[in-house]
Structures are given as structure tokens and as C-alpha cells.
Amino acid sequence: MSRWRRVVGFAAGLVLVIAVGEASARFAEAFGPPVLRWYDASTQLKVDQMEKADGARVVFAGTSMVWQGMVPAEFTALDPQGRTAYNAALAGGIPAVMEPWLLEEVVPRLNPDLVVWGLSSMDFSASYGEANLERYRDALATRTGTLAAMERATARVSALVRYRSVLRHPVAMFGSDKEAVESDFDAAAAVLGDDGERMDFEVELGERRAGQIEARLAAYRIDESDIEAIYRTAEALRQRGIEVILVEMPVPSRYVALHPNGAADVAAAHETINAIGDIFDLEVVDLRYGFTDDDFVDFTHLTETGAARLTASLTATLSAVPSPLPRPSEAPLEDDVAPPSSTSSSTTTTTTLPDAVLTDFIATANRTIRVFDGLYLNLLGGDDGRRSAAYWTSAQHAGKHESLFRAAESGGFEVVMMGSSLAVNGFDPSLFAELDGRKAFNAGLAGLSAEQM
Which residues pair with 285 in a beta bridge? Predict the structure, then answer.
């Protein structure tokens, strides 16, 4: 046999082997368990949903708090513009995970106009998230590098490549291994809504669940890498013409209690979110108020009615105020409002706020009065410094109130710095004391105008 015939025979045999292997792989893929190629089973199902969707003008991003808390269909139904929405939040979707997920997977598939990014203290915990990012980057579909890119390209057309992880371990096709994989995907599908939202409303308040959350918040401190991830992601999105709005999520008191320093740690996250908004020029919407522990099925996730209320509050807030949203500290005072022009039309246009927004405004005003009554008494040394949980306007307020109480026992302060979030982030009592010699306290609270001071 000539050399040419041997080459042709070898090539034909190779093609036949590949063809048989490809046919076998396709058969196995059709009847065997699915292959996990993404961060988790829910992520894989979300990718399938986004591939089939005709885009979405609004995307919700964040951890499972957002995944369960923001309902796209509810948002679209209430939104005056009727904007379509998709919930792209992930379990454990801290900022370092959201960065590649949003920029590399979500935005190219959905092409949104707006990203609403929900945040809480969990997003900034230095004890949580590293393993999540490692798992995200190690998934078959999201690995980086030339070989990974070649594998993904080949997997699009070849079941042999796509299903090889199962074919290499035939035991995964049968018995307990197969059942475990299928159970994982079945469980993910059971709680996944049509628009990406999570619908897992089973109450879970046991010690095991509490321990999981407590471990994620252990030795709590703000992780700068997550702040940097938010900045990079927001900048990349804005460069593509996509607006970014940050939302501070509601949490139950039992979640706050799992932090090493309780409300003080949550206050640190609150100040961080407001600082991110101020420094990076991102709008921040505070949706923490109006919820009780009964509105949560566990330590972090809202009930079905709680999620509907949160979504309605978000929609009302975004639709009631022109975009971009003015920050509370930038709202004009009454003295700054220009008087009506004598040449203006006699017809007066009145803007009516939705009832839910008006109710929130009134409640916030009443809380503000109580806050500064209490703060004033502390400064005068006329209060015992202990309040019930219902008293506090925010975790930041609770933390600062406690600081005042402790300081009163050691002589108090000579200088008090007041103001909104600009004062919170702009005044450094330690530096002031170093330069001036007097002991100072930053009593600023985010979202307060000069009149409220």
C-alpha cells in the first residue's frame, strides 16, 4: 500500500472515530444529566433565559437579596414607561462576581439602559466572596485564557467537547452522582422565575442557616476590592451609555445581630454605600425602611409580599423623580426656590407623588425629628443613650448614638461636626484633633438638609 493510501485510510478512520464519538456524545447528552458549565445551576439556567430574551431595558444586579427582592414583571407593570426588566442577580453575587458577570455575560445579551444594583453589608464583607469569585472564574464557561476560549468555541458545535466531563467519568451517568446533578438543576429550576427572579419563600430560621450568615460576616470589615469592583463596573457601564443606580437593601434585625459589632458594622456598610455614591458620582436609593422581620423568610431574603412591596417602592422612587436622581443633600431649600415669574402663565401645574412615596416622605420626616431630639439630648448629657430598635432611623444613626453614649462616659467632645453625607465622608475628627488639639465627633447623617440639621 502506498504512503498516500495509508494517509487517506488513517484520515478516514479518524473521521469515522470522531463521528461515532460525536454521535455517542449527543446520545449521552440527550439522556444523561446536564453538565454544569457555569457558576452554579441557577446561573446556567439564567444564561439560557437571557439567550432567548429579546433584551431588557432594566437589569437588576447583586446578591440573592436582590435576586429574591426585585420582581421584573412587577416593575414593568408599575413603571410608567413600561420598561422590560430582568433579574440578573446571583447567589453570592458580591461586586467582584458581578463585575465579570455583568460586563461579559449580561450586558452583551440584554443590552440594558439601566442597571439597578442592590447592596448590603454582605457585599463588602472581607470574610465573604473570595471563594465565590474563584468558583465563577473556574467554571468552564467563564475561564479566561486562550485554551479556555478555544474550548468554548469548540463546545458550541461539538457535544464530544461539551459533554466530555461526564464522558470521562461514566459513573456520573448513573446512580447517585446522576441523581445529585439532576436534583441540583431541578431545585434551581423550581425557584427560578420567568424573568430571572428567585422565588424561594420557604421559611428557614434554624441555627444552621444563621451559622452560614454569621460565618460570612465574621471579623467584619469593609473589603476595598469590592468597592473597586463597583467603580470599575460602573465606569465600564457608563462608557457604554448605561445608567447605574445603587440601592441599599432592607434587612431584618436578626441579620444585623449576626455581625460581630451589630449595628455598627451595618452602619459602616451604609456609610460606604453613600461614600461610593458621592465619590463615584452614582445615584443611591435607600430602600431599607418600611420592613419588619416578618417580611423576611430567613436572615436575608424577603417574603413574596415583601419582594412585591420592595419592587413597588423601587418603581415609585425611580418614576417619581427625574433621572438622574437628585441626591437628598442637593435638594433645594425653600429659600432657594425661585419665585413665580410675573410673566408666567396663570395655569399652575401640580406634581402629585404616588401615595407610597408620600407616605415614605412623611415617615422619614417624623423619624428625622425623633433622631435629632435624641441627638440633642445626648449632646447635653440629658439622655441615657439606650433606645429600642424601633427608634433608629438607620443603622448609621444607631451606631453614632452609641458612640455618643460611650464618649459621654469619658468626657465627651469639644467639637461636633454636623451635616449630610457630604459631612459624613468629608470631615475627619481624628485629623482635626491632630491639627487643632480638640476632641471632635462627626455627627453627620446621610440624607439630611440644612433645615433638618
Answer: 247
